[in-house]
Every structure is written in C-alpha cells, then in structure tokens.
Amino acid sequence: MEHTASALAATAAERDRAGGTALTERQLLRDSGLLTLAVPRAYGGQEADWPLILRIVRRLAAADSSLAHLVGFQHLQVASVLLFGSPVQHDRYLGATVSQKWFWGNAVNARDTRLSVRRTASGYELNGVKSFCSGASDSDLLNVSVALGPEPTERIFAVVPTRRSGITVNDDWDNLGQRQTDSGSVRFDRVEVAAGEVLGPPGAASSARASLRNLIGQLVLTEIYLGNAQGALAEAIGYVREQAEPWPGAGVARAQDDGLLQLRAGELWGQLRAATALADEALRDFQRAWDLGGALDFVQRGQLAMSIAAARLQAGRTALHVTAQIFELMGARATTRRHGFDRYWRNVRVHTLHDPLDQRQKGLGRWLLTGQAPEPYGYG
Amino acid sequence: MEHTASALAATAAERDRAGGTALTERQLLRDSGLLTLAVPRAYGGQEADWPLILRIVRRLAAADSSLAHLVGFQHLQVASVLLFGSPVQHDRYLGATVSQKWFWGNAVNARDTRLSVRRTASGYELNGVKSFCSGASDSDLLNVSVALGPEPTERIFAVVPTRRSGITVNDDWDNLGQRQTDSGSVRFDRVEVAAGEVLGPPGAASSARASLRNLIGQLVLTEIYLGNAQGALAEAIGYVREQAEPWPGAGVARAQDDGLLQLRAGELWGQLRAATALADEALRDFQRAWDLGGALDFVQRGQLAMSIAAARLQAGRTALHVTAQIFELMGARATTRRHGFDRYWRNVRVHTLHDPLDQRQKGLGRWLLTGQAPEPYGYG
Amino acid sequence: MEHTASALAATAAERDRAGGTALTERQLLRDSGLLTLAVPRAYGGQEADWPLILRIVRRLAAADSSLAHLVGFQHLQVASVLLFGSPVQHDRYLGATVSQKWFWGNAVNARDTRLSVRRTASGYELNGVKSFCSGASDSDLLNVSVALGPEPTERIFAVVPTRRSGITVNDDWDNLGQRQTDSGSVRFDRVEVAAGEVLGPPGAASSARASLRNLIGQLVLTEIYLGNAQGALAEAIGYVREQAEPWPGAGVARAQDDGLLQLRAGELWGQLRAATALADEALRDFQRAWDLGGALDFVQRGQLAMSIAAARLQAGRTALHVTAQIFELMGARATTRRHGFDRYWRNVRVHTLHDPLDQRQKGLGRWLLTGQAPEPYGYG
Amino acid sequence: MEHTASALAATAAERDRAGGTALTERQLLRDSGLLTLAVPRAYGGQEADWPLILRIVRRLAAADSSLAHLVGFQHLQVASVLLFGSPVQHDRYLGATVSQKWFWGNAVNARDTRLSVRRTASGYELNGVKSFCSGASDSDLLNVSVALGPEPTERIFAVVPTRRSGITVNDDWDNLGQRQTDSGSVRFDRVEVAAGEVLGPPGAASSARASLRNLIGQLVLTEIYLGNAQGALAEAIGYVREQAEPWPGAGVARAQDDGLLQLRAGELWGQLRAATALADEALRDFQRAWDLGGALDFVQRGQLAMSIAAARLQAGRTALHVTAQIFELMGARATTRRHGFDRYWRNVRVHTLHDPLDQRQKGLGRWLLTGQAPEPYGYG
Known about the structure:
- Four copies of one chain form a homotetramer.
- With 380 residues, the first copy, chain A, is of the alpha+beta class.
- The first copy, chain A, folds into three domains: 2-103, Butyryl-Coa Dehydrogenase, subunit A, domain 1; 105-197, Butyryl-CoA Dehydrogenase, subunit A, domain 2, CATH 2.40.110; 212-370, Butyryl-CoA Dehydrogenase, subunit A, domain 3, CATH 1.20.140.10.
- Chain A has helices at 2-18, 23-32, 50-63, 65-84, 87-99, 212-242, 259-291, 298-330, 343-351, 357-370, and strands at 104-107, 116-119, 123-130, 141-147, 155-161, 167-169, 186-194.
- In chain A, the strands form two sheets. A four-stranded antiparallel β-sheet of chain A has the order 2-3-7-6, with no helix packed on it. Chain A has a three-stranded mixed β-sheet with strand order 1-4-5, covered by helices on one side.
- In chain A, α6 (212-242) runs antiparallel to α7 and α7 packs antiparallel against α8 (298-330).
- Chain A starts with a helix and ends in a 10-residue tail after the last helix.
- The model of chain A has no long low-confidence stretch (mean pLDDT 96).
C-alpha cells in the first residue's frame, strides 16, 4: 500500500493541474489489490475490517485525494452489494469484483431528481441524467439509485454495467478540487435494467444494518479530509526544514527555529491529532455495529450516526483550517503553482460540501437536545 | 465512585461561592477509597491502571473541579514515591497511605524560588515559602521539592509530615477558580528533613521513567479541563430541556427545537468529543510507557510527552471554549449566581494557566520542526 | 469624566465582590453631570451628540461596567421621553431630570409577561412583576413598559415615580456579572398610572424615528462590551509590564519581551481595534439618522439597525474573547481574587445574553440574503 | 471607475485560469486615468487623496485582484518618486507618467539578495536577479532597489526604463493566486544606472516622511484583501439568491430563507465590515500623516505603522476566512471551475504571505508591551 501511495504522490500535483481521468493510476489501483479489501474471503477478497480499510483511504488521500476517493467509493459500492443484495447477487457481483478487477462507479446522487424510472415487463427503464457520478469514467459497473416514490425508503439501487446500451458517461467534471474523481454526469437513454439487477432482498431500506451504507459514505469523506490534512502538514514540515528561509526579523539561522512557526506547527498538529483520534473512535464504533449484523437496532444506529457525524464535522473543519494554514509555515515562495500545495485545501473545500457540515452539526445538537436521531435513509 | 461524584456535585456550586477548605468532602474522599487507586496491591491499594485512575479524575471534575484536582494530585504524590523512592520508602509511605488514609499535599512549585535548603548533619533544613501548594491544608504528608543547584536535575523531592515543627500552611488561597484546592502558600521555618525522607534512589532525575511524574501532572490537568467541560455541557443541555424558554423570534414551542441552539450544541459536543478522544489516546500511550518500566528510553519519553502535550492543549482550549459558550445555549436567566454556572469557566481559566499553553504548543511545533523534545525534568 | 471614571475604577473590583447597590457611586454620578448628557439644552441639559454620549459610556465601562450600564440606560430612558413623549411630557420630565438630578430606572423587559395592565377611569392600573429592571433601586423614576395587546406595536411606555404606592423594588439581583446594576425584579401591586403618564403622542410605535429607542439600547450594550475589553486589555498590559515574571523557557529577561506574549497582545489589540472602529461607524450612522428627525424612513431605519447589529455582534464576540484571553498574557498569579480580573469577562458574559447574539447574526444574514429588515419594535 | 471594474470583472475568472500578462486589461488601465491618481496636479495628475486612491484599489480588487494589485503598485512607485526624488526627478518622472501613460513595475524585493550593484564612473552597474517583480512585464519603467551595505538605510532606489539594455523580464510567474500580476523575476546583466536615476535627495532613508513608502505598500495589500473578500461575499450572496437550491432538510422553499445560511452570511458580513471600518480608519490616519509633510516625526510614524499593521492583520485574517467560507453559503455546485469562485481565496492566500502576518501581529504586541515601534525602513 505504501508503494501505491508513493507512486500516486509522485505525480499527484501534476495530475491535479491536468484534471481528467487518471487511467494509468486507476489501472495501478486495479492491480494493487486495494479494490477488493472489503470483499469477503468467501468471494476471493481480503475481508479487511473497516478501520483498516478506511485508514488505507486516509493514507491514500495524503498522497492523492482524488484516487483515494475512488478507492473509498469502490468499497462503498461493494458494501452496497453486501448490505442490500441477495445471496445470488453476492455471488454474481462480489466474486467478479475480484476476478475481473472491476472498478465500480456510481450514479446515486439523491438530490439530482432528473433521472426517472419506469417499470417494464422485465424490470425497469431509466431515462435522464445524474450529476456527481464519481468514478463513472473507466468504470466497469455502476451503482445507480433512483426514487420510485417520494419517501426516502422508496429508493432502489441497481447494478448496471457501464457499457450498457444507452449509458453515456460525460467528461464534464472540471472542478476546483478533487479533480480526478471524474464526478461528472451520466446520461441514461432508455437504459434497461433487469429485475434481478435491482439489489435486494433485503434491499436498501429494510433495516438498521442496511442503512449503514450511508455511514460508510460519511466515513470515506472523513478519511479524505484527514488524509489531505496529514499530507499537507507533512509537506509543510518538510518544506520548512529543507527549503524555507528564516524570516530576517526572527533572529534565527534556520526557519525551523522560528518560535512563531513552531507555535503554528504545534497548533495544526494538535488539532489534527484530535480530529484523527475522534475518527479512529468512530471507526471502532462502526466496526462494532457492523459486527452486530442483523442485531443492530435503530437506537444503536442513531448513536453510531452521531459518532460518525462528530468525526466528519471535526475532520472537515480541521482539514479546512490545516490545509489553509500550511502556507503560514512555508511562506510566499511556496505558492508557486509547480508545487501545487493549494490542492489539499481545494480538495477539502470541494469535498466538505458533499452535504452541508452545518446541517450535520445541527443534527448533532438536535440529537443532544431532543434525543431525535437523523433520518437513516436520507443524508444521515 | 458515581456516589461520591453525586455527593460532591450536590454542594459544589455553594462551596465554590464559599471557598476555603472542604473538610467534609475531603473526609468523604478519604473514606471513598479513591485516594489509594494508584497504590500497588502489594501495599493494600487498588493498583488501578492509569487510564482508569485519570478517567475517574475526569468524572469527579465534572462534579467538583477542586476536589477532583486534590484527588488527581494525591495520585501524583503517590506516583512520586513509586517513581523516585527506594524500596524502603515504598514500604514506609505506600502502606500507610492506605492504612492511615493519608491525604497528600504538595509544595513543589518549581518557579517559586523562595524556599531554600541547606545540608545539616542528619539531612537538610528548609527555610522560606512555597506558593501554589495545592492540598496542603488538612493534609497528612507533604511532597516538598527544592533545588540544590541551578540544573533541573538537581531538584530533590522530600516527604515531610505536614504537622512537623516549623511548617505553617497559610490559609491564603482566594482565587477566581479552583477555589477549594487550598492552593495557598506554605511557610517553612527551620524545618528538619532527615536524609531518608528525601526520595531516592533512584530519585527524581535518574531516568526517563522517573520523569514520567511530570507527565502524570499534565494528564491530571488535562482531565480536569475535560471534566469541567463535560459537566458544563451536561448542565447546559439539561437546562435547555427543562428550564430555558424559547426565543420569541425563533418560531419554536420549546427551546430545544431552536435550530440555532442545536447548531451551538452540536459544535460544542463535537469539539469536546475530539478533545476527549485525544486524551483517551494519551492515556493509553501513558500506560504503555508505564508498563515498559525501566526499559523506557528518552526518545519514547519525548514522543509520549508530545502526545500528552497535544492532549492537554486541545483539552484546555476546548474547555475554555465550551465552558464559556454554554451560556449561549442557556440564555440570560442562567447567569444568576445561585446556579454558579460560571464556575466551570473560572476553574478551567485558572487551571489552564498552570504553565502556559502557548509554550506547550510551541514545544510541540519545535519537536515537529526540529525533532527536539522538551527538557524532561522541567515543565515538559 | 476622567475623574469620575478613575473614582469608579478605584473601588470597582471590591464592589464587584460585594454586589448590591452602589449608593455612593450613584450619588457621584448624579453630581457629575453625566446623567444629563442627552437632555436638550432647552431643558438645561448638555445635548451632547450620541457618539460622544456613548463613547463616555464606553470609557466608564472600562472602569466600572455596572455603573456604566446605569449611565447608559439613564440616557435610554431620557431618549424614551424624547422619542415617545408629548411636548408637555418633555417639559415635565426633562427639566426635572436636570434640576432634581433624577436617576431613571426601568421595568421594560418585553419577554417577562407577568406584568398586567388594566384600564381605569383615570388611566391604568399595573399588577404583577417585571424582572431585569436595571437601575430600579435608588431610582427616582421608572420607565415601565407593558403590553396592551399581542402586537409589538401595542406596547405602552409609562413614567412612574419609583416611590409610588404599590411599587416594591426587590433586592434580588445576584448575578455572575454586572453585579451592581441592580437588575432585579420590581413588584407592582395595584399601581395607578395616570393617562398623562403614558408617553405619547407620538408614543412608542408611531414612526421609524420612535423606533430608534431600541437601537440606543443596542448601542449601550455595544459600548459596555468595548469598554470592558479595553479595560481588561489595558489592565493586562500594565500587569505584564509591571508584575509578570518571564517564563523560564522563554529566554527573556522581562515578560514583555516574550514573543509569544507579544503575539497574543497583538492579536487582542487588533481585534479590539476593528470592533471599535465598527462601533464608531455605527455611532456616526446613528447620529445621522437621529439628525434626520421625522424624515427618517423605515428603509433607512432598517439599514441603521443592520449597522448597529453588526457593531454589537463584533463587539460582543470580541469582548468575550479579549476578556478571557488577557489571562494568557498575565499568567497564573493574576488569578487571585483580590485583583478581580475575571470581572471583565463575567460582565461581558452576562451582558451579551441580553438578547441572543446568534439571533442577531442570523438577522443580519436574513437582511443580506432576502432584504428583509428586523421588526423595528421588537428586539431589532 | 465602475466601468473599468465591470470590464475587468467580466473576464477575471477566465484570465485567472489562463494566467500570464493581461495586455488588453493593462491597456484599459492606461486609458482609464486610474494610473495617475497619485500624481500631483502640477504634473497633470489627479492628486487624489490616499483614502480615495486606496478605496479604488479595493473596488478594483473585488473585480480583479491581479489588476488591482498592479494599479496599487503603480501608485506605490509614483509615491516613491514623490517621497525619495529630487525636484528635478519629480519633473522628469511624474509629468511623463501622465503624458506617456507610463505603467510602472518594480524590482525591489528586499529579501532577494541576488542583485548586486557596483559604482561606476557615471553611476552604478547592476548584475543579478530579483524575484517577485510585480508588474514588470509590459511596464515602461522599473523601480529598482538594491542594497549598498548591510543596513536597511543603505538601500537605494533607482528608476530604470524597462527596455534598457541588459534587462530581461522573465515570464516565470505561475502561482496559485494573483496570477496576472506578472510577479516573476527580472534579470540584470551589466545594466547601467546613471547617478541621476537614483532617487534623491532626499532619498529613501532620510526621514519619517520618506519611510511612508512602506506603509503605502502595506495599505495596498490591505485593500487587496478587503476587495477580494467583498467580491467573494457579493458573489456568494448573489449565487444564493439566484442559483442555490434549498437543502432538503432545511424545510424552506428558497435557499435564502435557510436560517443556517443566514447565520453564516451574518457572520461573514459582520467580520468584513469590522475589518473594513478599521482599514478606513487607517486610511484616514495615513492621510493625516501625509498632510504633515516634513513635520512628521518618528513617533507619529510608529503609531501610524501600528494602525496600518492592525488594519492589514484584520483584513488579511478576515479575508482568508470570508473567501474560504463563501462555499458554505453556495454549496457543492458552486465548485465548478467555470465559476472560478476559489480565486478569491487563492488571491488572498498568496498575498497575505507578502510578509508574515504573524510577525506583524507580534510587532503590534511588542509595541503595546514595550513601546518599541518597528524598524521603519525594513518590513515595518
């Protein structure tokens, strides 16, 4: 894994400038074995526990936030199959994820209601567009979600080969951060979905356990933030040691002996450690809930959701701060575009908007003050 | 322990207003068994591990920060005997701590240089004054520290009965917070100290292990901050639920349904959880180092010191914020002095000044940027 | 004025500990001429402009926040007469304010609905209780507000001599800050109010100009915050220069040469200057609106309210920060209760809760995003 | 001026992506008359006062931060001639600035010591390189600064035509922000400078008045920060009103009615207003000092420097916050690169590193605690 991370880091700044699909690096990930960490051993995967899987996402994000995101979301799609799918679907999709080195993309953005579905004799037909379809380019399969009715529980998840007739993955992602996540739009023109391609039973909205999917998504985001912050801080410390010149008025021979820089570095490190410790706690909480299997109830699910919400909140706020403040350590010369040191902030800036942190913070407070947990099938 | 905490909480606000020595509550602690948690089983104690001991301090601090401080410092003096004392001294002081229900006080403030020592035929003679002698009133024994020379390593720690001739514990602690810690001054007039009362060998400055004492002190501070913040936040949440009226313009029937209050509560809880998770990590790190015994080296000690410094820094900053912000949740009516809700902030405000947090933050940064750990016998 | 401020400052810490009514100091204010600053020259007053009046409140608050509050609210009651009263009432109340050295108190807290009013043959009868009646003790006249109906515009303001039969000023203010503002409760038992004692016409809810009263109240709060912060920072700087010992590890001979303390001092001063500059701008805006007289319209009033809301918000947040952080400059020895250095924070903490800053901040945002100004007769 | 600002704004996002020299827009500025605002009327200029000049820089920065920087630095070079130059030099350079529509660049970065100077028979010869030469591309004249000796007072400023033999303006500025300021390097190969081209007498280090030059530079930075923050916030408010969709869980029909967005908007606006009010105060302070002419003494200069340092500090910190936080208002869809909304943050991020804000904050504190003002010829 360290080897993969290093390989990604070597070209991350350059690829951030270029944007687009990272075909070479996606192949590197296919070959690395990191895409099958969440697949059970019964299907040829590694069946790693979630804390390990997500700390690997964190480590990759320190090197390359876009590719780490794709890896994290790969595990999220695998988890969707595990949590929503029937035994037959497990057999069909999980084994091939290993043997065919499948890379999963998604088209599940619940806020984009432009994708419509209608029932057909043999299943469903999809028409319309979904935005924010991370990883769809160069993917083998797509996890597609669409609402059959107005309730959050009426949402279905289908598995569709990306090359299926009628699917067009648009190359229209050009954002200020997370630039190689290919989070553009996917167009569906009369795309047929067989009944057996819709995950279930149990399906998406059947149980507290099934609703763990959303929480994996939140944990992936959390780890992306932490990884960026760690990458940024490590880079800044290295820069201060090796390249920064001491400030004339600071009265020191080396930049690293400047008390004001030390004060800043201590602040950032302390905050990042606290956010990381909280995330580690949330990872342990998640694994405990996962291990409960079907015994997990909605009260436990609600408490877990709050643990994870707190972790994501602290990670997000902290990473925004750390990735912006590293420049106070490094100084003006570190702003040359060649270094690409602003990509950490841009990545975190984009990704912390996945769903509003303020809403999540308010949700935490609502739970504390009223005991009400967030709705498990929505953004909770 | 919960019983003791509840008993302390019931009168904490009132005793905060009164100040002075909490004789009744000190006796309660003597009888509770909480004073012997750190004493090895071989001497009749409970030999609890440090994470448990310090989380008990945290819990007590949520109820009564002053008494929690005295309990924490009791364990610190016990640890001094364990770390610095000879086997003979272990026998003499640890068993009696249990059997005699000794309450330990201290006179070790290194910054106060008004206490002088001179060698005598049979040992030493102490003259002068020490300030900030927490827990000296009503104590049985005092841990006294005094410098024999200018180096931090030349400091000796002696164990002296508080009632020894020449010792006067002044009732001169009247501070804005931590009001019942009796952290006033102690006067020494020709106080004789036998050679065997000076802890050692190994003594204070012999090893990385011996230097763990300072770190216990830092952990006690950390837990006091967290306990105050937890107590404050719990009190505020209860107040919002049960007593606060909704703001007219908020458009809600109950205060707890006010989105702005929920947002605030979520912020405070998230930050406090992160600081707590980091402290828990530091507690585990400390126990690992403790368990290494004499094998602990100075590099490991330095890393541990940084872990604990980060924990104290985050706990301190967070607790200052949380204890000040609870009033935004509760509103104007919560400011009546009868509630005493400001005592949490006053306690944290006083205690975070034990030694400057900014200096500790800078020390963290120095370690990150230069690799240099803080001096282990000073304030590190 | 400097003489009065110095006289108040000399005993402020001691009186903060004592609480209660500051009879001596109230007499000092009566004799100082500072109570008639807002009275027009035609009635024997000084007719100072509002920026001057309110900067005097700021200066007094640096010395003694409680008494400054009483002075500020004196001007607020005078303004009530000016804005709401008829010419006859101007003659009756303003001249006597000067000649009789009247000190005005109030019983206007709109959130306390326990005071009821009924119409009588000759006017009204009041029954019930009002809380938060700042300055009622030792006052000559009370400004009393009570709702005739559910709308904010149905609130009447009456002027009643404090010694009138049926009025009991309770000595029940014992709060954590603003301890000598006598902001306790006033009981009304069948208190008769003549029709001519109800201010008007124009009355309270007649015009944009009349609604300036609330804004004076907000400006008084703003200046109280700034004064406390300035007093606190000045005290801290003096303490560092004259009493603080340098931190051993800082490597400096004098505390004031410690770079970390300089960094802190610079931070606090910069923030306080910005908040002060914004308040000065709001004062100028207010005077311009005042000078418009009856020509002021509700759009202008709304913009002015936003200017003042921003000023109060920044002043409040900044003062909470500055008054808490001065201890980082001064260190542990500054926490002795004798100094009373925590009273600045306690004063600001209490007073920033007058009405929720978060609600005001949200109101600012609403205006920016939707163009809707706050309701002028409520807390806007 | 509004016309020019609008013209710049129309293409600013696109040119930010492109980088490089904005030849069209530089010509627009030449033709706008904005380059001669600081030139006295005696030489055909507008002789605007400094508050007006600098508020125009602020306004331009809201539209296009790079071009605003070039305009601000134009005035700085004009001020250099005014403050350092002899009457003969005034005649030579100021009139032609108007008649020839000169655009001034600079090569004055004091921290880059790679430019050497040696005396020749007729003046000086320059050899070496200067970095951070804002506006050198497409400029007519360069203000070049080089040290004759180790003291800050030994620095000379020369005026050299950009096209002079031996001067190469490198196209090597490719930074993460301020992308069209052409702040790359300039190479000098045996560049001859006549004695009369060195500004003086009075020259650079002769008086408190001459040392006002640095403060203009600091004010330009301050206004660039404020302009970016104002531009960013205005853009965000417009976006919320016109493009943002309400968050599903917020329970509102329009995004602008979301209380959490209103709270955020209020926070940002309040902070920005405070920073702006402080800058306006500094502008007035500066003009007063300027108007003193030769009567300005070093004590007054020191106080002014502190006023300006505080303004820059608050503007910088606030602008970093505002430009990062606008995305909380706008949400995920606002991160598409087409909008270029991150350019405000990138511009401020780069420019706040001109010289370290922390050092300036410390300098403020040093002045408060010790009375010592910063060195007037260095970065003070």
